[in-house]
Queue: 2 jobs
Job 1
Amino acid sequence: MKKIGELFGNVKIPRLRKLFRLMKLTVLFLLISVGCVFANKSYSQNKTLTLHMENTTVKDVLSEIEGQSEFRIMYSGKFIDVERKVSVNMEAQKIEQVLSSLFAGTDVSYTVKDRFIVLVTPELLEEGTFGVFQERSVSGKVTDTGGQPLPGVTVVVKGTTQGTVTNADGDYTLSRIPEDAVLVFSFVGMRTQEVVVGDQTLINVSMEEETIGLEEVVAVGYGTIKRNKVTTPISSVDTERIKTQKTNSLDRSLEGQIAGLSVKQTTGSPGGGSVMSIRGASSIGASSQPLVVIDGIPVQGGFGKEQSALTLLNQADIKSIDVLKGVSATAIYGSRGANGVILVTTESAAEGKTEFAFSASAGIDRMMGREKLDLMNAEEFSQWRIENVQEYEDFYGVPYFNDPDEEKLFYDIYNNPGESTDWYDVMTRVAAKQEYNMNVTHAMKSFSGFFSLGYLDHQGIINETGFERISMRANMAYEPNNAIKVGLNINPTIRTWDGEIGGDRGSIYGSAFMSTPLDGPYIDNGPWERDNSNYYDGEYDLDIWSPGTFSNVNALHAVENTINTTRNINLFFQPSLQITPIHGLVLLTRYNGRIENQNKEYFRPSTVSSVYNPPPQAASGYHQTNNHRSWQWENIVSYDFILKDHSISAMGGYTMERYNDYSVRLNGSQYPNNAVHTINAATEQSGSSSTSQWSMMSYLLRLNYDYQAKYLFTASLRRDGCSRFGEENRWGYFPSISLGWNISKESFFPESSWITNLKIRGDYGTSGNNAIGNYTWIPTLAANNYTLGGQIVNGKRISSIGNASLGWERSKEFDVGLDLILFGGRVNFAFDYYNKITKDMLWGVTLPRSSGFSSIQDNIGEIRNRGAEFQINSTNIKNSNFTWNMDFNISFNRNKVLNLGNVDRILTGARNYSITVPGQPMAMFYGWESLGILNTWDDVHNNATFPTSVPGTPHYANHGGGDIIDDNDKIIIGNPHPAFTGGFNNTFKYKNFDLNIAMSFAHDFDVWCQLEEDVLNLDGVFNVLTEVKERWRSPEKPGNGRIAATFHVTNIDRWENSDWVANTSFIKGQNITLGYSLNNVRFCNALRLYMSAQNVFILTNFRYGNPDANLQGANALQRNFYNYDYPLATTMMFGVDIKF
C-alpha cells in the first residue's frame, strides 16, 4: 500500500462529483483525527527531517519525507502541481518548516495531525462543505460477558482505516461517522463483532470469548498446524507468563509447566543448567535429553557447561514454545526424536507494526534456609571430640593417646573452643542480580525485523562466583513480492562464568562445610597460634585445622585467590529463501550455521591447599579451548490445497548436516611464583588436543489430510543416515501414523451449551536415538611404547574394539488421547495414555579379559515407559473486576527394564550404588538394608556381621545367607522414580493488578544422600551434623538407632546402605509474580511494574536441601544423587516493562 494517497481523482458523474469529493475529504480529516487517538505524544512535534535535494519534483520530496519518517501525506494531483521542480536543503527541521518552504509562493495549505498530513487548495475547499451528508459521533462501552470493561479493544469503521481503541474503562468515541457505516469490534481472544451504526449514537457491545485453541496454530516439525487438526500430543507454554519470571535459564522456567516434562536442576549456581526428560528416561547408554529446536535449528548442549541448549536463549526473545511428546510429531526428527522435541520460535515483526520495548529488573539472591546443614558449632564439636575419646577409652579399656604432649594440646584446645565459625556465613552472601532487555520490531510492506539486545549480571550467593550474559538477536525478512521471501536470523551470545564450584568433598564448597568450626578463615579467628609461619600469608589462615583432624583448605581464601573463569561465545546464523510460485506451494531452502568458542582459565596458587594437604603446594593451572562448528542445510517443499471438504497438506524434504569439535588443553605445574599464570611460566608443562566430527543425511515426508476438520489423518516417514553407526546399519527408517476424530462435529452429536469440542486421537510410530560417541563402531588407536632392537620406540596400539554392526537405538510408541473443550473455551482438558518400548539400547558390554579389551559398544535390551498424563486449563472466575485462570497438570510414568540381552545387571555410580536389572525400573538404589545398630555382643554373635563388627556398629540384613555380611547381601533399597509429578499455576487479575503463582510437585520417590558419607563421618576428622549427638554410646544409651558409635574406626557406617536413602515428596513454590499494568499512558503505549520471587518455598519431608536436585547431570543411570553442591537461592526481583 502506498503511503501517499491520491484521494481526489476525476469523477465521471457530474451530479455526484461534488458529493464524492466532500465525502472523501471528510473521511480524510476523520482519519487524521482518529490517528491522534493512538498517539500519546505528537509525533510531528518531535520528528525532524534532513533534506538535500536539487532540481527534483515536489512528488519526490514528499516521497523522501515519507521514507525518512512515519508521516502519511495525502493530496490531489489535480489541484496540486506535484511535478513542479524544486531544490530543498534543510537540516534537522520540523515538518511545518519543511512544508512551508516547499509550498512558499503557492496557494497550497496543509494540516498536520501527528503522523497524518493533508495538502489542500482554496479551489478544493470551495467545491463543497462538510455538512452536505449526515455524519454523527458514536460512543459506547465494550465489556465481556461478565460485564467487565475491556481496555484495548480495536473499533474501526469497516472498509476504512478510521478507528480507535477503548480506554482503561472500556469506553470509546468515534466522530463523523456516516450513518451507513459498520463498526468492527475486535480483541485478542474474543469473537469479532460487527454493528451497523444506522441512527444510533450510543453503541455498547458485549464481546464473547472465542473457543480457545481451535484456530490456534502450533508448531510441528518443519511446519505448523491448527490445533483442532492435531492428532498427537503437543503442549504449548504460556511464554508471556514465563517471561516475567526472570530466571537465568529458560529450562528452569519450564518446570511444572507441561505434563510429562521433567526438569531437574544440576546446580544452584548462576548460569547453571538443568536435566530434562519427557515421559521418563528411555536409554541406558545414550542421552535421554529431549531434542531442542530453535527456529528450525536442532541444537545440542555445549561443552558440558549446560545440560540443555535452552540455556543459550534470552527469554525476552521467545515467541512460542511447543513440546512434541507423541511419536507422530517426533518421528519426523527420526534418529533424534525418541526423547521428545522442544520447539522454540523467537520473535518476529508483525506487518505494519513498529514497536520499541524496554525492560529492566534488579533484585537479590539469598540462600534458602533449608539449604543450610545443621552442623555442629565449636562448643558442640569440642564436646563431641572429648566424649569420643572418653567413650573409646571406656569401651576398649586403653588410653586413646600415646603421646602426653599430643593429649595436652588436644584438651587445651577442645576445653577452650572459643568463638565458633559458621562457614555458611563465611562463604555465602546476599547477591545482586540485574537484567536489561530492549527490542525493536519494525515492519514495512516488504521488510520486517526484530532486533534485541539483552544483558544479565547475576552474582552468586557463594563469594566470588557469578554469571554474565550478553545476547543479541536480529530476525529479518525481506519480501519484494508475494512469491519471494528472503530471511536472515543472527543470534550471538557471550557468556561468562566465574568461580565455578564442584559438588564433592574435594571441592571448595564441600570442604568448607566439613571444616572444623574451631578455626576461621583469618589468623586471629582461630583459638590457637601454630608455629609454622608458612601456613599464614599475613591475613589468611591458609589451612583449617584442629587436633585430631585433617588439614583442610581455607575455602574463603581459595575462592578469593583461585582463578576459575569460563568464557563462551556462541553464534547462530540462518539465511533462508522461500519461494511461493503458486498458491499453496512453498519451496524453502535454509542454512543453519553455528560457531561456538569456549575458553577456560584455571590457576591455583601455592597458598591454596587441598584436603589433607597443608600449604604450601606447588601452584598449578591450565588453559583449555573448545571450538565447535556445525552446519545444516535443509530443503523443504510443502503443498497445501483444499478440494471442497477435503484438506490436504504434503511436505517433503532433504537435509544434510555436519558437526566438528576441536579442543586444546595446556597444563602447567611447579610455578616459581603466583604472579604469572601463563602456561609458559610453569616449570613443568604438558598438553593435549582432540578432534571429532560426525555427519548425517536425511530424507523426510509427511502427509496431513482431513475431511471437514472432522476426520484427521497424518503419516510421516524419515530416513536418516549417520556416520556414528557401522556401515551395516548406517541408515534407519522412522515411520509414524496418527488418526483423529472430532466427534463434536458429527451431526449425531447432541447440541450442547457446555461441550464446545470433543476429539479423540491416536498415534503409533518409531523414533530413534543417536546420542552416542562418534567413533564407537570402529577400532581406535592410542600411543604406546615398544621395545625394538633393544630401544624403546613410539608406536600405536588398538585401544578399543569397534562394532561394525552397531545400529540405531529405536523407540516404538503408541499413544491414545482425548481433547475436550467446555463452556466456549472456559475449560480445556487433555488426557493421554502412552506405551513406549525402547530396544537395541546402546551400551558398553563387558568383554572377557582374554579379549584384551574391557568392553565393546553394542545394542542390547529393552526398556518400557508407559503412563498417563492429564492437563487442564480453565477460567474459573471472570466477572466485571476479577479473573482467575488456572493450569494444572499431572503425569504418571512407570519405567521397567524388560531385558538386557546377555547382561544380567548394570552397576554404576560411587560404590556401585545404582543398579539396572530386568524386571525393575532402571537406576534403582543398591546397597545393604540397615536394621539399626548392633547393641550388644550377643547381637554381634547371633547375627551375620562384618568381621570387624562390634557393639555400636551398623546392623545390616542378611539377604544372601551365610555368617558374614558381604556383597551378596546387597538388595534394591530405593526407587528414584516418583509415583507422579506435575504443576499447578494460578493467575489472578483484579482491574490493573495481576498475580501469578507457579508451583511444581512430585510424590513418593527416593533420594541418594551421598553427602552423609561426610557429614556423618564418625572419624572426627570433619565437622558433622548435630544428629551425631544421638549416636550409640553404650547398650544403655543406644541413641536414635541410626548413628553408630563414633569411637570405632571400622568405616562400616560409611558403606552404602538404606540409611542413606530418603523417601520424600515435595511441593515447590517456583515463582510468585505481582504486577500492575497501564495502557496508553502519557509517555508510552504500555507500562508494567512488577515484583517477582523464585524458589519461594519447598514443602517437603526431605532432611536436606532441594529434594529435586540431580547432581549427576544427564546420566540416566545415576539419578537423584544428592551431594555437596551449589545451594539453591531464593530470588526477589523488581522490574518494569515499557512499550513505546
Job 2
Amino acid sequence: MRTAALVSYLGLLVALARGACSPFDENTDYPGNDIGTTAQATAQACCADCAKLPGCKAYVWVPRNGGVCLLKSAADGKYPAAGARAATMIAPVPPLTGSCPSPEANTDYPGNDLGRTQRSSMDQCCNDCEATKGCARFVYYNGDCILKKAGGSKSKYPGATAVSFVPKAPATPAPIVTPAPVVTPAPVVTPAPVVTPAPVVTPAPVPAPTQDTKKCSTIEDNIDYPGNDIGTTAQATAQACCADCAKLTGCKAYVWVPRDGGVCLLKSAADGKYPAAGAKAATMLATVPPLTGSCPSPEANTDYPGNDLGRTQRSSMDQCCNDCEATKGCARFVYFNGECILKSAGGTKSTYPGATAVSFVPKNSVTPAPVPAPTQDTTKCSSIEEDTDYPGNDIGTTTQATAEACCADCVANPNCKLYVWAPRGVCILKSAKGGRAISPGARAATVRDRLPTPPPPPSMVGCPALTDGVDYPGNDLTVTYRSAAEYCCADCTATPNCRGFVWNEATGECRLKTLMGGSVRAPGNRASVLPRTTTATCSQFESNVDYPGNDVAQTYRASADACCADCADVPECTVYVWSSENGGVCYLKSVKGEATPYPGAKAGVYTRKAPPPLNPSDASPVQAAVYGSHPAPAVAFAFVPKAQWISRLESGDIGAIDIFAPFPLPSPEEMVKAHSAKPKPLLEAATNTLYFPLAQSVGECAVMTSSSGYHYFTYVAATQICVVHEFTGGDASTYGLMPAQAPVPMPDVAVPQDFARGSTTAPTLAACAAACEKQVSCASFTYSGTACSFYGPAPSRDGVVAGWVAEPIEWNEVPNEMQYLTMANRKMDLSGYSTTASSATTILACAKAALQGKLALFSFDGSTKKCTLVAVPTKASTTLQLVNYPATPVLLADSRLPSGTTVVAVPSVTTAADCHRACVPSASGCFASEFAGNTCTHHVPAFAKGNTLGWVAPVMLPTAVKAPSAVHFYVNAHQDDHELFMSANLYDSFASQSTKIVMIYLSAGDAGNTNGWYQARESGTLASAQSFVKRFGLYSPVRSTSTATVLGHTITKVTVGNAVHYFLRLSEDAMTRLPSTPAAPIDRPTERYANVAALQAVVVSLMKDEARGIGNAVVNSQQFKEVDHVLHAMAGQIVFDGVAADATLKKCLTQNYYWGYQRWLDTVNMKDPALGTQRTMWWALNRAVVKQYPDQSPWYDHCQALGRQYLALTVPGAGTC
C-alpha cells in the first residue's frame, strides 16, 4: 500500500511538471486566442504540448487531418463544435489555512470578480481564494472558480454555488513582561468599572430576490431578445430590472446581463429569442382584463396559421382568454412559449408541437363543434414526413394553413416534384429532392407520379455488412460525400490503404480510414470494416518496455495480439507498443527508439518483406481515369500508383513541406487576416513546386494541375496534399502515355533528368510510344527526329500517386461582346474547306473576324501571324457539336466536318447529346462530335506546335432575367463573403431560371493595397458567378459591364447571366471610419459618402429598384450581433436597419443573416450538389485571382472553411415589393 501511495505521489509530481489539464468539455470549442497548433492523434496528447508552450492556458483538439491541437492563451467562453474536445491547464493547488464553511446552493453574487481558475472540485476554489489578494468569496459553476471580493447582492443562479472565505484567526501572542522600575508608589486610585460590550447581532439573511409576476413575465435564463434597445440601467439582479422597465415609456421587455456588476438592457419589443450564456430575459405583462366568457376546449400541439390580431405575453395560458375577450374580433388564441397569439375566426387547423389552440366562447354562447383535422390526398402526394426539410431547389411559394393543402398547389405547378410546409403557413415548392434535413415543425411530401422511388442503395462489393450506431475515431484517410452508406464501399475499395469507412447520416460524409481501431457508440453513423489483406506475424512480445517517439498511428485494441495486424496495415510501421490505458491502445511506430521501462506495456516488431524486383518487360503500370460528371467538366488524367514526381526518396519533403505530414494550414486567426489581406504565395522558387492542401481526390488534384497551366502532379491521399510540378522548358516535344488513347502532347515541358529511364531510336512517334509502353518504368517520353527518351516517376508509398494531365482547350470571353474557344498547338487540314484569309494578326482579332463573318471555325498560325476563317459544310440530318462548357456545346445543326481531322468512331451511343458527352478533350484530344443515323464520331485535330485552332461560341442563351418571379439579394462587406458563408443558398439562386440575383459589395476588399488587389478579388467573384452560370446552362456567361447612378453615386455594374453585381468600392479603412469620417470610393474620390446613413440609403435604393414589382424577395447578409469582422457586422447592420426603416421593404423582404468566422470551422453541413459545386466555384475564384496575382492562393487560406452555411437570424417578409 505504501508503494502504491508513493507511485501515486510520483505520478502527481510528473503531471505537475509536465502540466495537468482539466477534464474534457466534449463537443466544445473555446473560440479565439490561438497561439499555436500541433498534430496529435488524441486529445489527451495535447495537454503536454500546451504545457510546453509559454502562455498556453487551454487547448481544443479537433479531429481533422488525423488530429490537431489548437493551443490557446485563454478559454474565453464555450461554443458547440461537434467532435471537438476542449480542456484547460490546471495550476498547482496553493496551500490552505483558512476555510470555506457555508456553501449556498444555486446562488451567485454578480460583479466584483477578481479572476477565474478551473478546478475539478469546488473544495480547491477555497485554496485559490486564499491565494488571491482581496478575495472574500467564490462562486463555483461548471468547473470554474469565479473569485470575488466582498460586496454584491445575492441572486439565484441554478447550478452555481457561492461560498464565503473565512481566514484563519491569528493566534493571540503571549504578553512580553518588562521589569518595572522601582518608583515611589502613587496613591491608589479606584478603577473605573469595565463596560461589557453589547453582543454582536448576526444580520438576518438577505432573501433571494423574486420577480414581480404582476408586472413582468417569468424570467427566461440564458436568453437574449436581440435588438430594440431603448435604454440601460445598472442592477445587481435581473428581478430589479422589472421596475426600471415599468418606469420607461415604451419599454416592453428587458434582458439582464452579468457584466459590470449587472446591466439591464431595456427594449421596445421582444423580437425573437437567442441563446446567451448568463443572460436573463423577461417581458412586461399587461394588466389582465376582466373575463365574462370562457375558453373551454384546449387543443394540444395545434395551430391555426394566419388571421393574427396581436400578441400578449402571459405566464399562464388562462390569462390569454381574458386578452382575447378584450380584443375586438378575437375568436381564438394559440399559446406558445409564453405568448398569447390572438386570432380572428377562420384558418385551418395544423399540427405545431408545443402550441395549444383554444377557441373563445362569449357569455351565453354555445361551444362550437371542433373542426376535423385535415387529411392528405395520398392518391396524389405521399404521406407527410414530420419535422423534415429538403433544402434547395425552390421554385416558388404559396400560402396555406396546413401542409395537407400544399399538395394541390404542388400538383398545379408542372415543375413541382415535392413541397415543404413551414410552420409560418408557407408551402415551399421544389423542383428536385435534395438531402434530407431535420427541421422542427416542417412537413414534407412528394408528388407521387413526378418523383420516382429512389433506387435501392448498391450492393457492397468487397465490404462486410454495415454496423449501425458506431464510430472508429481517428486514422482518417480522406472524406467523400454520399447519400447512403452503401456508396462509401466503392470509394473505400478504390482508395489505396483504405481499411474501412464510417458514414454519417447528418452530413453525408464517408470517412475513409487507414485503420479501424476500437469502436465507440455514435448514433447516426454506419460503418464497415474491410477484411484484412495480411496475415501478419510479429516477434515475441517484450514485456514492460516502451519505445517512446516515432509514432505513426494508434488503434484501440483490448489485447496486444491485435496490434500486429494493425502494424502490418500501416506501411510505415515496424514496431508497436501496447498499453492497457483507455481500454487498450496500440501505439504504432516507424522505428525502435531507446527502450524505456513501462510496467504492463508489451512491445512487438513486424518485419516487412521487400517487394519483388520489377521486370522491365512487365506490363506498363500506367492507369487512366476521368474526374467530373455532367454538367461539371470531365477531365481525364493518367497516373502511376505508389509513385511520385519527387526525386529525393529518403524523405517526402520538397523545400519546406513534408508531404507525408499534415499540411501546415493557417490558424483561424491567420484565416481571418487572409480574408482582409492578400493570401500567401504557394510557389517555392527553389523547387518550382505548388502545393494545394485538402484536395479530396487524385481527380481534384488533376483539375488543379491542368487549370493552373501545368501537367505533372503528385497526390498523397493520407494528407490530401496535391503537389503540382512546374516542369517547363526543353526543345523536344513531350508526351504522356494515356491508356486506350493516343499519347497526350505536352509542349514546352521538360521532365527533369532525375526521372530519366533510358532512351532508344524510333522511326515514328507511334513507335516511340510503343517502346515506352513496354518499359515498366516509363510514363512519359520525348521524341525528336528519331531520338526517343523515356521518363518515369520515382517509387513511393501506398496511397501516393504520380500523375499527368493535359487540357488542350481554353474558354475565352470578350466582355460585352463574345465568347470563343481555342486549342493551342493544333490544326486541321483545310484543303477540303472553303476558307477566307483575314488580316487579323492576333488570335483575338482572328476570333472577332470569324464572329463578324458569321463563321464558326478559324485557324491562326503563330509563326506567320496568319488568320484563316473556315466555313463548315452543311449536311442534312447531321448534328455537329463543338466543345464549349458541358451544359451548352456549340451546336451546328445540319453540319459536318468531312475531312482534315482524325476521325474516331464511338460505339454504343444512341443520341447526339451522349455522343458529345463522350468527347473528353483531355483524354482523346477531340474538339467536336458528329452524330447522324445513330452513328457517333469524334474529330481529333493534329498536333502542330505554334498553330491555334479556334471556334466562336455564339451567344444563344438569354443574357439576363426578363421577367423574374423572385429576386435574391446578397449584400456583403467583401467580394467573396457570400461564396464562403452563404454558398448553399447561392447554389439555389443560380439554379432557378426565374430568379434574379443581385450582389452588392460595400467595400473594395483592398486590404490597404492600391496595386490592383481589389480588382483581382472582383475578378474572382465574377469568375465564381460564371462557374455557376456555366453549370446550369440557363444564361450566357459572358460579362456585361456598365454603370448605374444611385443618389448621386456612380456604381460599376456587371451582369453575368441571372446575376447582377454592384461594386461600391469603399476602401476597407475608409468604410471602417465611416461612422465618424466621410469617405469616397477608391475609383471615384469625388463622390463622398457623408456617413453610414448615406451608404445605407444607396443600398436601400438599389434593393428597392431591383425588387420593385416582385413578390418573392429575399436579402442575404451577414450576422451583426456578435462581431467577427467589423465590416461583416457593419454590412449586416446596414441591411437590417435600412430594411426596418423602409415601409415597403420591411413588409415584402425576407431577411437572412449568416454566421461568418464564428462558425466557418464548425461541422460541414452543406450537402451535394451544392457542396461539390462550392469547391468548383471556389477553385474558379482562386484561378481568376491568381491570373492577376500570380503565385497567390485564396485556396490555401480558405479551403478548410468550405462546406459550411450557418443561418443566424431570419426575419420573414411577404407581399410584392
